[in-house]
Design brief:
This is Cell cycle control protein cwf14. With 149 residues, the chain is mainly alpha-helical. It is 40% helix and 0% strand. Helix 1 packs antiparallel against helix 2.
Length: 149
């Protein structure tokens, strides 16, 4: 089946206020390119994705804070940013729920990806881990994102 051709410039332009945050989003894009092009020598397979997951988290948190905390952007711009994948909509949806305010990534709460069908170790409050162990998530490299810390 041939690809569908669209007219050039048919993508809707960003809503009002995008130019105010465009520089910050470009910085995140540059960090993402650097993380993707970074050398993977000497790293374990799952450690290669950690910088990318962290940058995605930071960018999503930035947009979340702009809309929900500071109320600096409009609903129209917020929806446009989510639609164009500038932020992780599923992660932001979890941040709005009690107990998930500091969640690092959605993979950490998916029970199917763990050995014992439980959430990730980074979701356990540090005072319950005991012995002052330094825990780190295998999925994203998080060192603890439980809201009870």
């Amino acid at each position: 089946m041939p690809a569908v051709r669209t007219a050039r410039g048919s993508r809707k332009p960003p809503p009002e206020g995008f130019e105010d945050i465009e520089d910050t989003l470009l910085e995140f894009a540059n960090k993402m390119k650097d993380a993707q092009n970074e050398s993977h020598e000497g790293k374990k397979r799952h450690e290669m994705l950690w910088p990318i997951m962290q940058i995605t988290h930071q960018r999503s948190r930035y947009i979340y804070d702009l809309y929900y905390e500071r109320e600096a952007i409009s609903k129209q711009l917020y929806d446009w940013l989510l639609k164009n994948n500038y932020a992780d909509a599923n992660l932001i949806a979890k941040w709005k729920k009690q107990g998930y305010e500091k969640l690092c990534c959605v993979r950490c709460i998916q029970t199917k990806e763990t050995n014992f069908n439980a959430t990730c170790i980074c979701r356990v409050p540090r005072n319950q881990v005991g012995d002052g162990k330094d825990i780190q998530c295998v999925s994203c490299g998080c060192r603890g994102c439980a809201s009870g810390d």
